[in-house]
Hints:
The protein has helices at 11-16, 31-60, 79-90, 94-104, 107-122, 124-147, 150-161, 167-175, 177-194, 200-220, 233-243, 255-259, 262-291, 297-327, 333-356, 363-375, 387-391, 396-407, 409-421, 428-452, 466-481, and strands at residues 5-10, 486-491. By secondary structure, the chain is mostly helical. The longest helix is centred in the middle third of the chain and has 31 residues, at 297-327. The two termini are 18 Å apart.
Amino acid sequence: MVHKQIFTITKKDVESHKKEDDLKPDEWYGTRHTQCLLLFFLLAIGYAMRVNLSVGIVAMTDKTASSNPDVPTYDWNDKSIVLSSFFWGYVVLQVLAGYCATQYGAKWFLTGAMMVNSLACMGIPFMAAEFGSKGVMACRVLQGLSQGFFFPSVHGLLGQWVPTGERSQLGTFVYSGAPFGTIVALPLTGLISASELGWPVSFYLFGIVGMIWTVWWCFAGYDNPSKHPTISEQERYYVESSLGHLKKKILPTPWKAIFTSLPMWAIVVANFGQNWGYATLLTEIPNYLHEVMGYNVKSNSMLSAAPYLCYWIISMCIGPLSDVLINRKIVTRGTSRKIFNSIGIVGPAIALTLLSYLPDDEDFLSVMVLIFAVGINGSVSSGFQVNHIDISPNFSGILMGITNGSSNIFSIIAPLAVQVIVTDESDKSLWRIVFLIASIIYVLSAIFFNMFASGEIQQWNYEQPENDKMRKLSHMDNNEKYGKSTYTQSVTEEKV
C-alpha cells in the first residue's frame, strides 16, 4: 500500500531552510549528545562483557594465575571453541532485532537485551563450576543472543538522532564505545584475575555495571526526538529536518530491493572481511601473547588492551576528519567512506603479513605491529560501519541486522579455524597461517567495497519511486508559472 500525505509550504519556507547549518542550535551540547553518550556506554559495557573472557579463560585454565589458591581453575582443551560460542547466538537474532527496532522502536528491546546479557555474564562462574566449558558456552550463547540486538538497534537510533552533517563524528563516537570497553575490560580482567579476588569477580563486576546502565537507559533513553519530553524545539527541528523526519510514518520494508542492492552487498562483504580479521585478533591475541611470546596473565592483559587504545584514538580522530572532508565538499560522502575503509582494512592486512615473518626474537617489534594492526582498523568506523545510514536512513537498523548478523558467521569460523590450524599454540609458523588467511580476506573485502559502495541515499529508501517524485516537482513548477504563492508537494514520509 502506498502511503502519502499532502501538505502545503511556501517559497519562503523552502528558501529559509536550505542549509542544515542554519538550523543548528547554538548550544554545543544537546539532547542528541546525551542519547549518543548512552549508546556509547551500551557498546562499551557490551564489549567489556564480550571480551573479558579472552583474558579470563587464560586465568581459568592456569593454576598460577591468581595469588589465591582457592580460586577455581580448569583443564580445558577447547578454549577456542569456548571463545567462538558467543557468536553462535550473536548471528541468530540480528535481522529480527533490526526489524523490531525499525517497526516498534529500540528502547525496550535494548533494555531487555542488556538485562539478559548482564545476568548471563554474572552466571559464568557458577556455570563453569557446575558444567565446565559447556556451561560457559551456554552463558556465552545467551550473551550473544542478547547482544544481537545491540548494533541493529544502535544503527536505527543513530538514524533518528544524528543529523547528516554530524554523522561521521557522532557515529564514530558511539561506535568507539566498543574499543573503549575493550581497553577497560582486558587490563581490568587481568588485574582482578591475578589478584586475591580471582577471575570470577571480573564477571560479577561487569554484570553489575550492565544492570546500572539498564536503569539509566530506562529513564534517559528515547527512540527519537519527538518522543523526548525535554528536548528543545530548535534541536528537535534541526535533527528531524536534516533527516527528513518532520512527517513520520512507518514504511513497508523493501526486502527485494535491499537484497538486490550492490551498495548494500558492498557493506556485507566489507563486514565479512572486518569480522574475520577482528575476531581473529580480538579472541586470539591473549593466547598468542601467552603461548608464543610468554607473557603472564597480568602483562598479557595490558598488552592485549594496548591495540584497542590505539584503535579508539584513531577512530575518534577519523570521525571529525571525515565530516570536515564531506561538509567542505573536498570529497564526496561515498569517496570518504572508501578512503577510510581502505585504510582501516588494508592497513591491518599489511601489518599481519609483516607479523607473520618477523624473527622470533623481535618481541617488541611484534607487539608494535599487533598494536598497529588493530589500531589502524579504527578507520572503518568512518568507512563501511556508518555506510548503512548513508544509503538508507529509514532502514539502517534492518541493514545493520542483515550485514552484521550474516558477517558474524565469520566471527564463529575464525576462532574455530585457529583451533584447527594451531595444533601447537607455541608454534609461530602455525600462527603465520592464521595471520596470512586474515590478511587475504581483509584485502578482498576492501576491493569489493571500493568497487560497489555508495554514499548516496538509495531509491528504495523512499516510499515512492524517483520518477514519481520528479513528476510532483514538475507539477510544483507549473503552479509557480500561474503565480501561486504556495505549492502542494506530495512527499514521502520517512520513518522514525
